[in-house]
Amino acid sequence: MKKKYLILFLFILVKFILQYSIIDTEYELHRDEYLHLDQGNHLAWGYLSVPPVNSWLAFIVKIFGNSVFWVKFFPALFGALTLVVVWKIVEELKGGLFAQILASTGILFSVLLRLNMLFQPTSLEVLLWTMLYYALIKYFKTEKVKWIYIAAVIFGIGFLNKYNIAFSVLGLIPAMLITKQRGIFLQKHLYLAGLLALLIILPNILWQYHNNFPVILHMKQLSERQLVNVDRFDFVKSQILFFFGVVFVIIAGLYALIFYKPFEKIRFLFWAYVFTMALFLFFRAKDYYAIGLYPAYIAVGSVFMGQLFDKGWTKSVLRPVSILIPVLLFLPLYNFAFPNKSPQYILDHPETYKKFGLLRWEDGKDHSLPQDFADMQGWRELAQKVDDEYLQLSKLGKTLVLCDNYGQAGAINYYSKQKIKAVAFNADYLNWFDLSEKYSNLIRVKDSGQGKNELGETGALFEKSIIADSITNPFAREKGALIFSFKNAKIDIRKRIKDEINKEKNDD
């Protein structure tokens, strides 16, 4: 027993080491992380695009000093805990040490390394999906009703983290109805647990009600602007690539859930996969929405393969080969799939990145860095330059910092030494404007190519207007963004700002 948990500890240690080593020091946080961190400064029971749990984690990061170490700690922790839960699923299904090592290796060297890089709700989401399946496996194996309540609590927390977990339940319900596990619907504790889950999520539902259900608007926007463009074939292809090194384990697990008698009590998991994937395909979901499905199936497949490779040459040859496959397939990916090489290195060695289409951005053109990597450049420069201008303007009166996008506003708020509270005309920043005081000055950050008329239009409202600076980092996606400085407002600009906020909300 001690040997097994020592090996698990080593996997956890390697997980943390990898998560902290796959990002080169020349990269900053990703644009999306700044928004999530800023939510910790505006605690609420909900936000325009996400529920509140990640904001609570952001608040904890803030208490600990807001350092990059703590920003990266929680996604890495949730990835490590996913390993632990997978290990426990294998244990519950009577899998041996080989099965635990195979499953842990498959989880470690997978898309989760990429996912667990960023401070976003997705890392916790994958952990909670895995925990939910574990709780149901425990219930059907032991018939102890406490596991139904544990599953309800997990779902409740999952709902407050990311609404996507609802798909797991929508897949589980018909899956249990068509299998012998349908007896759970005669269990009164299921409905009491449902009430418990409802109590947990109720504050967010009330917040949604009082804010005109922004989640519905968000889903409508996703459907019209992004999901409509999702190619279902690409979705399926991504599912194979996410856990490419252990695809054979996942297939083995799905097969075993149908034909392997010891798994009869958890056969509903096969149909849960089928129904959940069908829902994702029907709604044209983004490919990464389904990542939370796979850890449990990797655990199931590893147990089955442990039984399959239990004697003779299959044990001595196929077991070590099975463990080596995900490692060997991961090694070449390590050199280009993560931001562990400096921007200059990528500029000097673009061949592999270009070969795999990593340099092509959403504009259809090739750039010097992959788009995600470019989204981790230039933010500190922006904050410093805005800080310098803000310091000068603040001597003349109250100054508003207004940005074009949430990445700019969040980065300024994260790095600013002047304790700036920048806002933007998008995302949650629409609700974070402080218009209680009159502003004398304005710093306007405009996206590259979007500031042509700014001096003429906005400048007419102020006594003096200049282009104070711009983003010059050649690798940044924000390169060319302009920083406008407007001094001594001729009118009270708050009405103009309110009109623009209302316009943005109505356009949405």
Question: Would you give an account of this structure?
Answer:
There is one protein chain. The chain is mainly alpha-helical and 508 residues long. 59% of the residues lie in helices and 6% in strands. It has 23 helices and 5 strands. It has helices spanning 2-21, 31-39, 53-63, 68-92, 97-108, 112-115, 122-142, 146-161, 166-177, 188-210, 214-225, 232-242, 247-259, 268-282, 294-308, 312-334, 343-348, 351-355, 371-374, 379-393, 406-415, 454-457, 494-507; strands spanning 399-403, 423-424, 441-446, 462-470, 482-489. The chain has a 5-stranded mixed β-sheet with strand order 2-1-3-5-4. Strand 1 (399-403), helix 21 and strand 2 (423-424) form a beta-alpha-beta unit. The longest helix is centred in the N-terminal third of the chain and has 25 residues, at 68-92. The model has no long low-confidence stretch (mean pLDDT 92).
Structure described in brief:
This protein is mainly alpha-helical. It has 23 helices and five strands. Helices cover 59% and strands 6% of the residues.
